[in-house]
Amino acid sequence: MSFNQGSRLDTSQVQDRRGGMGGKIAIGGGGLVVLIASLLGVPPELLQGLGLGSGASVQQEATGPDSIAAQCETGEDANTRRDCRVVGTVNSLNRFWGEELPRFNMTYPRPSVVLFDGQVSTGCGTASSAVGPFYCPADTTAYFDTGFFDQLTDQLGAAEGPLAEEYVVAHEFGHHIQNLTGVINYSQQDPQGAASGAVRVELQADCYAGVWAGNATKQIDETTGRPFMQPIGRDDLRDALSAAAAVGDDRIQQASTGQVNPHTFTHGSSEQRQAWFVQGYETGDPAQCDTFGATDLDNPS
What we know:
alpha/beta
């Protein structure tokens, strides 16, 4: 899903900490195993530090000529640069959830968003690029290394396309919504298994990502009077579903170990992740994302 060229981006909603802590950490064979536990979720090793005041250090925000502040101004920038696409997606997500949650008598404090490379200090501890994108409940912040999007396609086999990347960002915002409602705690209370709390948390975040996608093109950019984003096409939807399938437990377990063990699932199967994204996209209603009340996670409706 692309942005209209004249749409204005608000870089104040994203912190650019790239270049602040060491070099890239490549994900090879061993790194793929790390992703099994943490991909597009809340890394278990980080969750252990919740409430312990882990004391993340403050990293200086990038201000150079290649920073988002210098490069990300319009929708055209978001269509050509990944970091700007994250900014535009964050802008859209904040606007959507800020307007949606009051319908459920909830307020929407925006999450912080950080772009980093190599490693980053967080309220949940220090994390490396190897854990993939993640949300830290302790500091209500979503963290992204945009280099992950290459791994999503090159190593995990997802299709390339804007909505595939935007799905990743929207999924992490889904965890922020869960942090506000309190259900994110089920990731620790029931951490693995085909119908575990952890799987239900991840599938609900996929559904919330679909809800946003189904509503995003209705947002009007006040500066232009035109939609902020262009309509979703069939190719866009295919790309998002490809990304959702690529990060299914069964797909990653098969690629890394050659076998699939549902008893150790933490995020749900490829088909489940696709199905719940579609549930959100087609209904456009967060109330239809009740994975905790679902008796059959394979069939949302």
